[in-house]
Please model this.
Amino acid sequence: MLLSTLDLTIIVIYIIVMLSAGIWISKLASASIQDYFLGGNKLPWWTLGLSNASGMFDISGTMWMVYLLFIYGLKSVFIPWLWPAFNQIFLMVFLSIWLRRSGVMTGAEWIRFRFGDNTGATLSHLIVVAFALLSVLGFLAYSFIGIGKFASGFFPWQLTADPYWNEVYYGLIFTFITSIYVVKGGMYSVVLTEVLQFFVMTVACILVGVIAMVSVSPEMIYAVVPEGWSTLLFGWALNIDWSTQLSAANQKIAEDGYDLFSIFIMLVLFKGILQSLAGPAPNYDMQRILSAKSPKEAAKVSAIVNVVMLFPRYMLIAGLTILALAFYMDELREMGEEVDFEQILPFVIRDFIPQGLLGLLLAGLLAAYMSTFAATANAAPAYVVNDIYKRFINSDAKPITYVRLSYLVTVVFIVLGTAIGLFVPSLNKIILWIVSALYGGYTASNLLKWYWWRFNGVGYFCGMLAGILAAVPLAFTDFSALNAFPLLFLICLISCVLGSIMTKPDDMAVLKEFYRKTRPWGLWQPVLKELQIDDPNAKANEYFKRDVLNVLVGLIWQMSLTLMPIFLVLKHWSGFGLSIACVVVTTLVLKATWYNNLQDYPDGVQAQ
Model:
């Protein structure tokens, strides 16, 4: 299908507007390093929330989730727990508040706030910078792969006869376009353009869902999907058999390793809860939280992500999946065992979205790519410039020097991430490595840093180093990173504990200041006793039970928000009504038990 003049006009206007807005706002970003990386802590919470939602609404992840819903049906809503998707609930309830109370600029700077300035803290600072930059490279490669697959699937211009190099060339083109405003504008540019992108994506997503509802009846869907596709319930095994409809789907299920679904869910929950308790990785999610005006606003940033992202995104995912099931099955069968399920999204858009709306949808999906890429790329210079150059090389440079160096670092990491993307075979492979292997090595150290006072900088360094050394080789093997997580976590946990108990505790003055401002729950009694010598009114965090309750309620709330648009597009009215009822009830509970109790700082502590 050739793009109409109207479609091309919409896409070109959109790209020009985004570039112009990013470059125009860049004057605000160049005032200081804090303006460049955190927007000067002046951005309203709702703009940061929309920006974060837009950054998470990435094209690569959307392609992945369309194929998940296509093959696994309603049970696919559990698979994004791999990230884990529900970490936003933990952030909303308590971790965003704890993190923002530090007042720092990056995750590596937070390490100094937690461990001080001793040798262990310096080693921890360097290892978290290494992890953050490795994570940035992984996500940039992931974005590059996604945009190449997406663009080559529907744009009419074949730049080369080789499909692989066609994907590469399109990836390079859109990477270059996005890089222009990201490099120049910093956080101000990223947030402004992502808010604009969010509204474009939302309109496009809802329209696609409506088209699917008008074009496809429930009977058409149930005629082509296997038994068990349309239910959330599962037993020991997945029990979805595509043999008579699309045999290649069974092969894909076997390759993914999800057939024993109960074991998969247990692993995902084990990994996901631990990673959620560990707090955000040092990426764009953490940068949005640190950019908030206050701890209470940081919690609202994490909350609004769930509200504004889930409904439009799953309207799009469900709409494209329904159209593919109804009208694209014959083409998929003709591909035989070579079918690439990650190409379902561009194929459906190319063949079933009408002219006019096609341009708007493509602009929205390009917005999704640009959002993720921009947010990820903006994280790299924060660590290199603020945590390496400024701290160890030149601490007295002029603000403009740091900003210009940030431009250079951003370009370097974009080039490196793009180069890595050339050698990664699929989205699914890099997703599993990032969320299970790389983040698996991150979990133990970052879990203990919140909840155990005796955990020191040396222990943090040992755990993170063990995790990185174990994770990197997994990227070059066929061994399941998810199955490796329990052993990986155990190795890192042992390294953390041994590194801590074999070395001296961190300076008590540092621990007291951390606990005074942050006030996490956990094993902090010795520090609290020392703090009470100076401040007899200091109290321990007494809200553990309330936080656990709010997390449980929040998980039901988030899952209901996820299912609601899927049920709507499927015209599953009983499921849609039940989802709405759950959203209303859980919202009222969270209003009373979470929102009404938000607190910037512990009693007696003021912002500094």
Q: What stands out?
A: The mean pLDDT is 82.
